[in-house]
Structures are given as C-alpha cells and as structure tokens.
# Entry
Amino acid sequence: MSAPLLELRRLTKSFGGARALRGVDFDLRAGEVHALLGENGAGKSTLIRIITGAHRPDGGTVAVDGRPAGPLDPRGAHQLGIACIYQQPALFPDLSIAENLALRLETGGSLRRVDWPARHRRATALLERVGARLDPHREVRDLSMPEQQLVEIACALGAGARIVVMDEPTAALTQAEQTRLHGVVRELRAQGTGVIYITHRLEEIFVLADRVTVLRDGESVGTRPAADLTEPELIRLMVGREVAQPYPPAERPPGGAVLRLRRLGRRDSGVHDVSLDLHAGEILGLAGLVGAGRTELARILFGLTPADAGTIELLGRTVRPRSPREAVEMGLAYVPEDRRRHGVILDLPLAHNASLASHRRLFPGGWLRPAAERRFTEDFIRDLGIRGGGPFAPAGSLSGGNQQKVALARWLATGPRVLILDEPTQGVDIGAKAEIHRLVRRLAGEGLAVLLISSDLPEVIGMSDRIGVMRGGTLTAVLPRDATPDTVMAAALGRATEAAR
Amino acid sequence: MLTPSAMPRPALRHETVLLAVVLLEWLCFHALGPRFGTLENSFDLLRHSAEIGLLALAMTPVILTGGIDLSVGSLLGLCAVLYGKLWRDAGLDPGAAAGCTLALGALAGGLNAALIAGLRLPPLIVTLGTYSLFRGLAEAITRGADTFTNFPASFLFLGQERWLGLPSQAWLFAAVAAAVWLLVHRTTFGRACRAHGFAPEGARHAGLPAGRQLAAVYMLSGLIAALAAVIYTARLGQARADAGTGYELLAITAVVLGGTSIFGGRGTVHGTLLGVAALAILNNGLVHARQPREVAGLLTGALLLLALAAGTAPRLGTAWRARRAPHPSPS
Ligand SMILES: Nc1ncnc2c1ncn2[C@@H]1O[C@H](COP(=O)(O)OP(=O)(O)OP(=O)(O)O)[C@@H](O)[C@H]1O
Ligand SMILES: [Mg+2]
# Structure
C-alpha cells in the first residue's frame, strides 16, 4: 500500500504546565473517514490545530504523502491541501457570505477586478452542495451558529482540499442538516479525500466512519475499524468505564402551568403566534430545522429581543421582559446557543464566569467573597466534571465542551423557575452529557420548568415529556413523549403535520 | 488580576516591571539632581500629581468598561470656575461651595452617562463633544478673562499646607485611591465592569445591568474631576477657565502605562497608581536635572510605547517565529 496521506508520530504539546498531547500517533489514508473521539479536553482540537498549523507541536513529526512536513504553519498547511472546519466558525462577521468564501478561495493579486456575479454564483453553488439555503449577500454576523458552520463547510469544499478536518461539524446541526452533511462527507471520500471527523454523537460513527481513533487524556488508546466496534465498547474506550443508561425517566407527573404563551411573536425575528403552556417539573423539548425560530423564541422570552405581539404569563402574572436583567429577576434563565459569544466571557476566569449571573445571591451587599466563590466553583467543577486549568484559568483556555459546562453552571446557580436550554450539550462528551441530563431531570423533579431546544434528536426525544415542533417561526405541533424520530422529523419538515396533530 | 491562576503567565507582571521603572527613575534623578531626593521635593511631587492622579483613578473603571472619558480635563476647568463663582459671587463659604461643585461635577458626568448609557452613543464621540462643551461653558462664565483669586487661608490649606505631616491633598488622594481600588477589585460592580469591557454582549446575556453600570462610572468620573478641580484651585490659589487643559490625555497615558487595556476588561488600580508615579517622577526629575520641557514629552512618549511593546513582545515573538517557520523542511 502507498504511504498514508497524513501521518503523525509521537506528537506532544503542552500549554504551560498542562499536557494536552503526550505522544500521539495518528494516520489518515486517502478516501477514508477517520473519526477522532475522546472526552472533553482529551486533546482532539489540539491535535487538529497542529495539523492545520495553528499550534506548533513541542515534539513529534508530521508527514504528508510520506514526506516529512516540518512544523506546519497555516499557509503551508493550506498549500498542502489541508482544510479545516473548526469547532468555532472563524468567519469575518462584517463581510457577506460570498466575500468570506472569496477570501479563502480566490487567488490572485489584491488589485484585480472583482467579478461579483461569478463570486455570488460560486457561493450559491457551494452553499447548495451543503444544503444551506442562504443568500450569499447576507452578512455573517446575522447568521446563526449552525448557518455559519455550513458556510465553513462550503469553504472547505470549495478549496478542493485533499485532507479535510471537521471538528464537531454537527454539534449544532439538526438531523436533516446532519444527514445532508453526511452525504457531502461521503462524496468527499469517494473522490479520494481523507476526512478527519470529530464528533460527540456516537451514532454518527457507525454510519460514517471507516476507522476510529480514541484519545484519552492526551494519549491515543488505539485505532480500530469502525465496523469492529459497538457503542458500549466505544464508550468504554473513551471514558474508561460504563456510562449509565442515557436518559433518566421523569420521577413524577408535571404540576401546574408556570409559563403560558399566547400568540407570542416579534415581527423582525420572524416568530409569530406561538401559544404554549409549560408546566412545573416538565421538560418540553423544542425540535425543528435550523432557522425554524427556536432560538428566536428563546431570545424573546429572555428579553434579548422583546416581544411585540402576544402575551407571556409567568407564575400567573403577565410579564414582558425587556432585557435579560428583567428576565433574570423574574426567574428565567437562558443558556444561549453561541457559547463563545454569549455563553461565556472567554477572557474571564472560569470562576468569575460561573458566578456572573448570581452576584446578588453569592455576594450580598456587592462585596466579592473569594472564599465563597472558590467553594462554589470547586463544587460545580466536581459536579460537572470540568477539566482544564482550575477555577482561575480563563474560560477561553478550556476545551469546547468544558466551556459549555461553565455556561450551564452559570445558570443552574441562579436557581431559576424556568430554564431555557439552547443546545445545552453541544460539544459535550458522552459521560458529561449523561451527567447534564441527570442534573436537568433532577432539577425538573424539584419543580423547575425546562424548555429544551436541541438539534440532537435522540436527546430531545429521550429527555422531553412533550415535544414541540417549530416550523417557519411558529409552533406547528406538540407531540407526546413517545414520539419517534420519524414523526418528529416529519413534523419539522412540514409533512404529515395533520396526522401528528 | 489578583487571583492566582493556573495559566502560564508572562515571567514578569506588568506592575512589577513598572515598579522597577519607577524605582530606577527615582535612583537616576537622585543621582542627577541634588535637590530631587529631598523631603520638600517629594511633597512637591505629591502635590503636583494629585490632580492628574485623581483623574487617572476615575479613568480606570471607565477604560475597564471599554470606554473613555475625554471630558475630564475640561470638566476640571469648568468646576474650578464654578467653584470660584459659588464662593465669590454666590457668597457661599468655601466648604459649601466645594460641596456644590462636587454635585455639579457629578451632574456633568451624568450628562455623559445619559448619552452613553441611555442613548447608547459611543463614549469617544460623546466625551469629545462634552470636552468642547465644558471648556466652552467655563470660558463663557468667565468671559475668557475673569480669574478668581484671594481665597481664604482656610481653603488654601487644602492645597498648600501639611496635615499630619503630609501635604493635605495627599490624604484625600489616598482615600479616593483606596475607594476606587476596593470598587474595582473587591466588588461585584468592578467585576461587572470588566465583564462588560471584555464582551458587552456576553455581559448582557449574563443579565448584567450594562446601563446602570456605565452611568455609574461616568458619573463617578465627573465627581472625581470636580474634586480634582477643588484641589487644583486650592493649590494654585486661583481658578481660571483654562485650568486642567490637556489633563485628560495625561490621565489616559497614566492608565495605559499602568497596564490597563484600552480595549477594556484588563487592568488594575495599583497599575494606574504606578503609571501616575512614573510620569510624575519623570517630569519633576527632568526639571531638577535641568532638562528642557520638551524632553519630558519625548521621554513620556517613549516610556508609553516601550511599556506597550513590552506587553505584547512575547506574543509578537511567537507570531513571528510561526510565520518564519521553514516549510516544508526535511528533518
Ligand atoms: N490555548 C490554550 N491554553 C491553555 N490550555 C489549553 C489551550 N488549548 C487547549 N488547552 C488545554 O488542552 C487540553 C486539550 O484541549 P482540546 O481543546 O484539545 O480538547 P478537545 O479534545 O478538543 O475537547 P472538546 O471535546 O471539549 O472540544 C484541555 O485540557 C485544555 O484546557
Ligand atoms: Mg475540541
């Protein structure tokens, strides 16, 4: 057999004292999908960043086509045909989609004339291939996380790379977009491209991957053909132990209505006529396609973009939160979808991030109490299994999944009456995911009302007592908890909604 | 930050480096100018740095929120004139006039606050406007010529005498410094300022009251500028419309020199105090070393640029090495 497309030998990398990689071997063949798995903080993204030249390894070698490729830099990696879709989209927010694509894909002098129609045609074609129906003129800052992710994927496609790296591309995608993406990945594979695919959704592995490498604490615990593995085996490799039954059952039936929405809407968010009752102790899942208006509904409830139509009744009182501050005081909490921009403040230490929404409770009188804060932080670091540089490491130095846990911890600490979760387990590993599910279910058992927005269909179905389906900015169906993925998908796509009702 | 961190740190903190710079300055000027190190000169130094020091203290929380207040120098002039007016023409006794001036200063800061926090206008533009407005008002009140003098000795005591062995205003300065330090480093208010400075949207999503916070820092800035005006008037024994011209830039220089990021979020009050000290010693020392005034400006600029470069040098180094990495290289 010819030399592998990409071969890594004994890679090591430390950040300060923390050893992110401790001698990892990895290889990628042409025309395969090689899944890279591991818990949060295992070192997956670090490995990727070495391949793309964003980080320099402390030791080890990288070889492309059997030839040693020195330490890579971003430009060199690009020239070797390596493209990456990062965990966090890295687009220019002030430029349009077409301009972002052009920046990465067009070559030639900076003084050449821009052929706008061609630019837009190409952008549209690429977006089409990844199944994103987006106007290439739109500015990236107006796109949701999953939409940005799709633009990133279109970029990599357009670059015609031989090695494509995807770091959790599906974390915020719904089933429909995920299936579409799988099609794109298979197409790449058929063309002889090598794909490195990182995900925390294990079901993807079995439909997509050829081989699997599992990292644990910065070390590779082995590479196996995907066909030889079962899900429990995979979990054992990742976590080193069994993970308990994934979805905890409801302990008791829901109580009275806590939140009543009547014909709620806001014109410029495209949300209209949402009527819904949320009960104490209930977990109501919200399913729908990207752009169906689920996040917009959450933003209205949390006062980020106040409603301009309809009513919100919270605990029997009619309210209309006009800012997050008001919403928090009313007992609402919202874990936002975009953790890097909204969920955590990357430059603030983990402890400060987690206490940010609970200042009044933790620090009566406004005086910081470092000892209390430290105890509080250590507690949730333990409860949620957060790994990283300790309570005072900046949130930005944590791995993606661990940042998500901090965002969650911040709002759980406020002791809310209604908790709105927007993709709460995106990028969270399987063990921690089960932990979060147990935690949310326990809080619901104590009377908390939970609105769970998730693109992870098994999660919505497993966790929810009822499942609301949104389409085109409004609630089109509410399904009972025994709904199947097919009925939910059908409702989300607008097929057979009558039957579901 | 005052908290231990498991993150890799630059080998030396900015404040440590700055402290070394301050001590070095002191030793240099001590060697150069025979009168520099005397107790009398040290007191002079304190007297001369109190006003800019106060403005820099007030500027620190403003910059931490990611804002800026260009109006403080002009406000100092306006408040000095208002003080003179209240005392001489309205017949208030010096204490009452000072109280009224402080209130008016806070009110003027409130104007900035209303425009920035209420209407969400950019601080740079708002305070650029009030920078002209306040100075213009001061000149209108005095018609450009009126100077207030002949203040009673009881008032001049504040600016020219000693109390408990130190220049009187040093005590006020110390009290304000302690209060601002506590506010920034020990209260949820300071924490929220930082959060807002790092990521305004992130802070909003956390339910922090951005409006109230911004309003408070700009009002505080106005209040402290008024205090600086009173001390300034007492030190010189006169109040004129051009008092404090250019002070806003000196205050900003001290804050940035002290390690506070102009983009917000990062910075300390003790850093600001060291920045003030570094500038004050430089200016005073050069006078004693018989250097022309231009040298002071030159060295201040050089010091600031060096301090900023020192802060980014490690990062630049890595970026440069990464760019220069040979590729692909046989190994
Ligand atoms: N820039 C950095 N500074 C300090 N520590 C870092 C930095 N980047 C990563 N680390 C640390 O290196 C370790 C590995 O992080 P990495 O991002 O590779 O994890 P991951 O496997 O991608 O996790 P996830 O599934 O959560 O994305 C973590 O402990 C993380 O805290
Ligand atoms: Mg990662």
